[in-house]
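Dear V.,

Thank you for sending over the compound details. I've combined the ligand you provided, zinc ion, with the protein sequence from our construct and run the structure prediction for the complex. I'm sharing the raw inputs here so there's no ambiguity about protonation or stereochemistry in the SMILES, which I know was a concern on your side last time.
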Amino acid sequence: MGRSVRGRPIYAVYAGSGPAVFITAGQHGNEHPGPELMLHFLRDLKTCNFVVKESALCKVRYVVVPVVNPDGFDSWERTNANHVDPNRNWPAGWGGPGSMPGSCCAICRGGSPLDQPETKAVYGLLSSERYAIHIDLHSGTEVLAWPPGCAQLGVSRFTELYRRLAQRHVEIASKYGITPYDYGNIIEKYADVPPEFLAMKIYEACGAIDDTVDYKLNKPSFVLEISSPYNPTYSTLTSYYYPRLQAVLASLAEYAYSTQPSVATPVILTILASTVSAFSSALYTSLKA
Ligand SMILES: [Zn+2]
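Below is the predicted structure of the protein with zinc ion bound, written out as C-alpha cells.
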C-alpha cells in the first residue's frame, strides 16, 4: 500500500470479515517481535488455533501492516532511511516533548507531520479503512498503554473504554494462566508528578501514531510494548510473549465484534503466500535461539 524511502514495499494484509481490528507493527525497525508475532497470528487465524481460545479472535476482520518501516527493519535500525523516527512524525501533538527537530536522531520527528513516505502511506490507510479499533506494536518494555502519550493533548474521550478493555485483557489472561501486561497512560499513572519531571518517570512521546488515531481519526487506539528485551529469544517470544499478545488482541476483538456483530462471520482467510514469505525470510534470522 506504499513504499519506503528506499522504495521497499509496505504491505497491508487483510484477513477475515466483519468489524475490523487494525494492527500496525514495525515502526521501529530494531523491534522485531511485533512483525514476527503478526505472522504467527495470521498463520494461526487460518485455523483459529490460539492458546487463548476466545472465539472473538476469529470472528472479526484484521487489517495488518506488519512492517511500517521496512528500511529500518532490514538494517535493524529504529529510524527510517532518512533517520527520522516514524513514531514521532504523526500529526497529533507533533513537535511536542519526547521528540527532536529534523532528522538524524533516535526520536527525530522530521520537518513536518507525515513528511515521511512510510507514515504518509499508513496514514492514508488509517484514514480510509473501516475499523473499530487500532493497536500499534512495539518492544523495549512491557506495557499496554493508551492515549495520550503526549500530555498536552489532554484526557482522551475513550479513556473509560481503554480502561475497560485493559481490564478485560487481564481477565482473559488470568483465565488461561497468562501473565497480563501492566497498563495505563502517562496522565493517569503520573497525575501527581509535576510536568517538568514527567520525562523522568516515563518518556513522553508526542507525534505518535496512537494519539493521531485517537485525536485526529476519532478511533480508539492502544500501544502494546510486547517485551522488555527489544528482541527476546525466538522460543521466549513464541512461548511466553505470543500468548500475552493474544490476550490483548482477544479483548480488542471482543470490542470490535460488539460494535457490529450482525455482519461478522467466521474467518475465511486469504493471504498471498508471497506476501508473508517476503517478511518471514528476513525475520529473526540474525537472532540467537
Ligand atoms: Zn518502538
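A first observation: The pocket of zinc ion is lined by residues 28, 31, 138, 140 (CB under 6 Å).

Warm regards,
I. M.
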